[in-house]
Amino acid sequence: MQRLALAYPQRPLTELLGDLVETQDTLFTLLERRQSPQQARQLHFLASVTSGLLAKASHDLADPHAAMLQARTAVLCADQADHNGLRAWLRGLQSLVAYCSGRYAEAVRYAEMGSDFAFRSNGTTSVWLPVSAARAYAALGNGEKTISAIRAAEEAWSHVEPDEMDELGGICTFNQPRTLYYAADALAWLPSETEQAIGYASRAVNAYADPHEPSWAFGDQAGSHSDLAVARIASRDVEGAEEALSPVLSLEPSQRINGIVNSVQRVHQAVS
Fold first, then answer.
1. I need a surface site. Which of 106, 127, 219, 227 has the fewest CB within 10 A?
2. Rounded CA gap, 124 and 153, in Å?
3. Residue 226: what are its φ and ψ, rounded to 5°?
4. How is residue 140 annotated by DSSP?
5. Is residue 193 part of a domain?
C-alpha cells in the first residue's frame, strides 16, 4: 500500500492501475473472512486508502461519477476503521473531484465537512482542506474568503502532527510544495491578486524543479507551471506564459491526466 501511495504522484497511472485493483480485491476478500477487531480495523483502513486511490484514478481518467462512487466506498471503510485522519483525507479527495468538475460550491462543502476530522487528527489534511476551499472560493469569485483560507492553511502548518496517513507518504500526505501550488491555483482566479499569484506559482515551480525530491509530483508540477502561465497572461507577459507552459505541453500522453488537461484549459481561457 505504501509503495502505491509513494508511486502514485510520480508514475503514469497505466503502471499502477492493475496493482491498485488487485490490492482492493485482495483486501475486500480478506474482509469477508472472520477477523479479530484489531485486524478488521487495519484491513478497513487499508481498503479505504486503496478505494481512495482508485477514486483519484477515476478522477484522473476524467470519470467524476466513478470517482465519487469509489470515494463513498472509501468513506464507509474509514468509518469502520474509525480513523479521523483518513476521513479528513477522503473529504479532501471529494473536494478535489468536485473542484475539477466545476462544482465549486460542492468543493467548499466537502472541504468544510472534513475540517472537524482534520482538527482531531492534526495531520497534514488540516492544511489540505482549507487551501482546497481557497481554490473553490476563488473560482466562485470570493476573494476575501480565498485569502482567509490560504492564511488558515499556512497557519495550520505550525500545528501539524503526522498521523498514519502521513506515514504512508506520497499521495496520502500533503506537503509544502502542494501548499504553494494550491495557493497559486486559487489566486490565479482573481484579477486583483495577479502579483501574489505569480509569486506563489514561481515558488511552486521552483519547489517542483527536482524530480528526485520525495515531494515531487508530475501533476502538481504541471499545475504550478500552468498557474504561472495564467498569472503571467493576466499581467500581459505572453512570452513568459509560453515559457512557463512549455514543459506541460511536452508531457508524454500517458501523463496527461484530467487535472493537467483542466489546468491547460485554464491557460487557453486566459489567452482567449
1. 106
2. 10
3. -65, -40
4. T
5. yes
DSSP conformation letters of 21-49: HHHHHHHHHHHTS---HHHHHHHHHHHHH
Instruction: Identify whether 259 is part of a domain.
Output: yes
Output the pTM of the full model. Answer: 0.94
Please report whether residue 189 resides in a domain: yes
Of 106, 103, 107, 55, nearest to 78 by C-alpha is: 55
How far, in Å, CA of 224 to CA of 222, rounded? 5
H-helix or E-strand containing 168? helix 164-168
**Per-residue pLDDT tens for 148-169?**
999 999 999 999 999 999 999 9
Residue written as grid cell 493537467: 260
**What is the crossing angle of helices 258-271 and 238-249, to 10°?**
160
Asked whether residue 258 is assigned to any structural domain, the reply reads yes
Domain assignment of residue 255, given as a range: 176-272
pLDDT digits (tens, 9 = 90+) for 196-245: 999 999 999 999 999 999 999 999 999 999 999 999 999 999 999 999 99
Structurally, the chain folds into a number of domains equal to 1
Q: Grid cell 507551471 — which residue?
A: 225
Contact assessment for residue 256 and residue 59, using Cβ atoms and an 8 Å cutoff: no
